[in-house]
Structures are given as structure tokens and as C-alpha cells.
Specification:
Chain A is α/β, with parallel strands linked by helices. Chain A contains 15 helices and 17 strands. The first copy, chain A, has helices at residues 47-53, 62-67, 71-76, 79-84, 96-102, 128-138, 156-176, 194-207, 223-233, 251-259, 269-275, 307-311, 314-322, 326-353, 356-369; strands at 6-13, 16-23, 26-30, 32-34, 36-37, 58-60, 90-92, 106-108, 113-116, 123-126, 142-144, 183-188, 211-214, 243-246, 264-266, 278-281, 284-287.
């Protein structure tokens, strides 16, 4: 029986791979950046905007949707697809990351994790069974197993204990998962120790999932450490399953993880930067609050053809951003999501052409030499 | 010589009139609601959105644009049209209303008005000459003469003194105004005294403008008092010039002023309501924060075909509004501007058909019988 979500690899260049992710809500060329729709909306963008941009998989955050509006309402609406109006592929995280990063108080046990809601401080418990059921209600194409995401600098012993518990949780998630038309992905943890990563990988792949994520990176360690770990894990993941790197969204980082064979990745960075007035370009980041843009009547990014770059000047967008005008946030978000989506499209072409590495080096040189505001 | 902005009346029904407002940036069927783009943007909407909605004249606020980004930058960008990307007709107010409603300290003299900026408390002076020059820089199709807008309950003597000064200012504005392709409108003041309104009307029309606004109403007096004053002024304004009622945006009020022969009107109400979660319908206002919408999977307004009403449910929009999500504000703003634009279009048809009064009564009964949340 084919899994609801599967990947077809169409080209390789070193470890990098190009392919097509098949889901019940359509197929997505990979590698692909997944925009984060935290509360059931990619901030400021309509489903129509995302379609025009060519976005592939859209993320939803189980933690937030569990509290607002609640999984029952989303289920009654026909899942996140019916609720938000986005007809393309979706993925929900397990909520675990938010529990460990947002919650002030939490109590971890074999059973699960107890924590205080960031909304009203009330006490809740997430268990593998609960987060699986909630994600079934949300009804995305891809659900994630509940994992613990310890800080990179936690004790080695803690990481060992944690990854084993995460594997036991993953097994319970798989046991609990019954929704047809939805795939469940497992998550490899293990901090920055090669042997622990190896142990987590082997425990997780032994359970067997439709896809695998690499978690617990991009959480405070250096970029070098992050890539070191990923280079150990990624090539050892099952080659016929999608590989998801959790939490990378800066252009250089995106190319680094693609280079190591990752197919999909997500991050709030492009959308969050936009709301702070920063835009991504091939010459680096540009903060429109910088005084030099007040009278700059050139387009936002002359190399970009998106809505924000064709109808407006930097001076106007700078004004909107300074005045905290909704339209500024909307247009910059549009551009940034468009930019990383196009970057992935271009990366894919380079993998197919077999010159990914050379192209990536050129990109990296240009970005680091460019304007950084 | 034809004025840059002129009106062609095509049908009358009682005092109500239907027509076409001709401007250097296109013609607009009247009566017409003018959405307010305070700082050079109708909050959350692109020029493309406004075009799809069928918006006619877009307003800009001279007070705000004077401070941010400043008239020099707007002028260098090719005026508000070039700056904002809106290619249709525009109107700027004189900034006077904001000086009198926002400024904490102000000093009024024959010369003009001194006030503290709402942005940083610095002291500035607006004179008829300055606000005219600033509006020439902003370059809208219609500029407004600087007026004083006293509170409705000010002493009669104060109103008399004020309307005469406003007339002298209007004369200085006309004197100062040199920009071709831009029309200057005068403003009738006079509070709630019929004879003072008459005096202001006669002083203002004696100076002679391309169009006339009725100001100083909708500022705290009762609806009955407002309409009483308007019914004295409106029919006595030159029939061949556009008539602009300043500050009405609720559907019932819009129809009331149309009934009295007004061609154009503006108000932040539809856009501001939207940002607070309220939508306009023919059954009255609906606040999406109301608990009953959490599980309401019907469209926002079943009688409306706008973007917000075709792709989303009340439950989803209610969620967005509760979570203060940008997309909620954007979509509700879209609907409300669309609603009042359509209302004007329908009013126009009824004037042409000669049954405006009967239709308006039906509308009024339905709105007042409908849901008010």
C-alpha cells in the first residue's frame, strides 16, 4: 500500500536531491520551503496569494490551533484545509516544540508533558496519543510525532534519556495514528553527539514512518555544528522517504541543508523578518527602516517579479513599514515567501543540471558580499 | 475653461442625484463613497484590491502625510499617485480637521493655526498657503481649502467668527493655488445655525470653487440636527458642481445624505469597523468576535460576492479577528469597502429608476430590524 505522502526522487547532485512530493492535496516539486501558517494563516497572505507565489506545503502549529480555535472547530470545518481555504498540501507539527520553547512551567514524564498555556496559564498535558488525535482533527497531509526538543547545550546524559523517550513516544504516536489519507513522520533527535544521533536515527527508522524529520538543530548551536550533525544523519535516512529539516529559513542555510539531501524545511524567519521590515534578496537582507530607503524610488528587488516588486517603490514600502501599516507587512511577507520559494525552484534546476555546488558557492559569495542592513 | 474636476448630473430623484465625476485620473459614477487612505494606503488593501472593488476616489490625509513621509518625498515620487501606485482619482483634505481633532495644544489666529504634532509634540503651523502648497505636492485630483472645524456645541458667536475666518482662509487658498490638473474645493461651515450656514454658503460660493464640501457636521450633533443642516445647505449649493459631505460612512447615513443631493462622502468608519471585527451587511452590523460565530460555517455575507465572502467562513474570519491576525483585518476591510461601494452603486440605480426614496425606506427597515452585534 502506498503511503498517503511519498517522494519520488528525479535527480541527484552529490547528496542533494530533486524530486516530487506526492500528497493527497497535490504534488510539490522538491526541495521545498514550507511557509508557516502558525494559527491557520500565513500572516497577511490569502490562499490565493500562496497559490500565485507557488507555495507548496503550508504548515500549521498544533500548539496554537489546539488552544485557538480548538481542534473540534477545525474538524467541523473540514480540517485545516476547509477551515483556512488552502487547498494544497499541509503539514502540522506536534506542538512539542512550542511546549518546550514557549511554556514557562512544564513537567515531563514518560506519559507526556504538562505545561502552562501561553494564552491563559491554564495547565494542559500533551501526550503522544493526544497530539496525534489533535493532528487527525486538523487533518493535514502530514502529521508529526510528538518529540522532546532539548536545548543543544543540555547534558549528554539528558540527550540520551530524551531521545529514547522520544522514540517510545514516536511508537505510541504510530500506534495511535489511524487517519487514512494522512502520513505520520518521525523525528530524529540526539543533540550534538554523533552516536546519539545515530541511535535516534536507528530507533526512529526501526519504528518506520512515511517520512523523517531532523529535529533539535537550529536551536542555538553554531551553523557548523548544525551542518556537521545533519551531514551525519541525512545520508543515512531511508533514501526513498521524504526528509524534513525543522527550522531553517535563511537563504544560505536553505542551500546548505539542500546540499545535504534535505527535501523540505520550514521556518518563521522569512515571514517574521518581513513584519520587521526586512526583505531577502540575492545581495543579502535589506531593512527598509534604514534611512537610505526613504527616497529610494527603485523597485524593492529589481531581480524579482513578485507583486511587491512590480507595483511599488522602496520609498513607499519603507514609509509603510515605518508607519507599521498592514499593507507594508503584507507586501514584504509576500516578497519574502516568494523569494525563498523561487530560491528552491532555482536550486532544483541546478540539481537537475548537476551544478548545484558551484551555483551555491556563487550565491553564497554574492550574499555575503552584498548589502547587510 | 473646464475645471480639472467636474460633475455631470445624469439623473435626479427628488433632491438625490446620480452623475459622473470627471477627474484627470478617470471618471467615477456618483454618488460615491471615498475610502480613506490616511497615510497613503487604505489599511491592508492594495491598489489592485481597490480597483477590483470598484472604488472611485481615494482619500489621503494631508496632516499625516505632511509629517510622514513628508510632502517633498511624495512630490519626488510623482505625487500620491506615483507614491502609492493608485492610478484612479484622489482627494486630499487640508489637514485642518486633524489639527482640530488630534492636536493637544493649538493657537488659532488670522494667519493660521499653530499646533503640536501628534507624532512627536513638535510645534508646527498650518496656514492656508502652506496646506495648499503641501496639497499641490501631494498632487491629488482634488485639494481642499483649509477650514476650522469647531465643535458642534461651540457658542454661536464663535461659529460666526470662525466661518468668516474660514471664508477668508478659503480665499487665500484659492489665491495660493496654482497647480493645473488639480481642483480646489471650498468648505461650508456654520455649526447648527441655519443663518450661519447660509452666510458660510454664500461667502464660499462667492469666492467660487470647482466643488463644495459641507463640513462641521457628523461631529457630535444628533443625526436629526445633522440632516436638518444638510437639507438647508445642499440644495442651495451650485447645482453644476460636485457636493461633498465630509465624514459619513454608516450605510443608513450614506443613504440619508445621498437623498439630500450629496455626490461624494468619506469616512474611516467602514475600514475602522473592519479592524475591530465588525462587518456591514444589509441586516446591520455583525461583530465577528461574538461567540455565536465561532462555529458558524456559513459565508460572511451570503448576499455579497466579494473576495472575503466567497472564500471563507464566518468561523474562520472570527478566529482570525479574535487572534488579531492581519488576514482577518485585510479581508474584513475588503468586504466593508466593497459593501459601501456596492451600496452607492445600488443607490445610483435607484435614483436612475426614480424609486430611491421607497428603496431607501426598505433598506432602513431591514437594517434596523436586523442583527446588531
Amino acid at each position: 500500500m502506498t503511503a498517503p505522502v511519498s517522494i519520488e526522487i528525479t535527480a541527484r547532485d552529490g547528496e542533494a536531491r530533486a524530486g516530487v512530493l506526492h500528497t493527497p492535496h497535490g504534488s510539490v516539486p522538491t526541495p521545498t520551503f514550507m511557509p508557516v501558517g502558525t494559527k491557520g494563516t500565513v500572516k497577511g497572505l490569502t490562499p490565493g496569494d500562496l497559490e500565485t507565489i507557488g507555495a507548496g506545503v503550508v504548515l500549521g502549529n498544533t500548539y496554537h490551533l489546539y488552544f485557538r480555535p480548538g481542534p473540534d472547530i477545525v474538524r467541523e470545518a473540514g480540517g485545516l484545509h476547509g477551515f483556512s481555504g488552502w487547498g494544497g498540501p499541509m503539514l502540522t507539527d506536534s506542538g512539542g516544540y512550542q511546549v518546550f520553547s514557549l511554556a514557562k512551567t512544564r513537567k515531563l514524564s514518560e506519559e507526556g508533558v504538562e505545561f502552562a498555556s501561553v494564552y491563559d496559564g491554564s495547565i494542559h498535558a500533551f501526550t503522544p496519543e493526544l497530539t496525534t488525535r489533535v493532528q487527525e482533527d486538523l487533518g493535514a497531509d502530514i502529521a508529526m510525532a510528538l518529540d522532546e526538543c532539548p536545548p543543544a547545550n543540555a547534558e549528554r546524559e539528558y540527550h540520551r534519556e530524551s531521545l529514547r523517550r522520544t522514540a517510545r513516544w514516536a511508537e505510541r504516536c504510530k500506534e495511535a495514528h489511524t487517519r487514512s489519507g494522512q502520513s505520520l513522520f518521525g523525528i530524529v533527535q540526539g543533540g550534538l553527539s554523533p552516536d546519539l544521533r545515530e541511535e535516534s536515527l536507528s530507533l526512529t527508522t526501526d519504528i518506520g514512518f512515511d517520512g523523517y524529520a531532523v529535529g533539535g538543530l537550529s536551536v542555538g548551536e553554531s551553523r557548523e555544528e548544525m551542518l556537521g550533525m545533519l551531514s551525519l544523519v541525512s545520508p543515512n535516512l531511508p533514501a526513498d522517504k521524504p526528509r524534513y529539516f525543522m527550522g531553517i529559513g535563511d537563504p544560505a542555510g536553505i542551500l546548505e541543508v539542500i546540499r545535504l539531501g534535505v527535501d523540505m524545511f520550514d521556518c518563521v524567519l522569512p515571514t517574521r523578518l518581513a513584519r520587521h521590515g526586512s526583505v531577502l534578496t540575492k545581495d543579502g537582507r535589506m531593512n527598509l527602516k534604514n534611512a537610505r530607503f526613504r527616497r529610494d524610488f527603485s523597485p524593492l528587488d529589481a531581480e524579482c517579479g513578485c507583486e511587491a516588486c512590480s507595483g511599488y517603490t522602496r520609498a513607499y514600502l519603507s514609509h509603510l513599514v515605518r508607519e507599521d501599516e498592514m499593507l507594508g507587512h503584507r507586501l514584504l511577507t509576500y516578497h519574502n515567501v516568494h523569494f525563498v520559494t523561487e530560491l528552491c525552484r532555482e536550486a532544483r534546476g541546478r540539481i537537475e543540471a548537476g551544478d548545484f555546488e558551484r551555483w551555491m558557492e556563487g550565491f553564497r559569495r554574492r550574499v555575503s558580499g552584498g548589502a547587510k542592513n
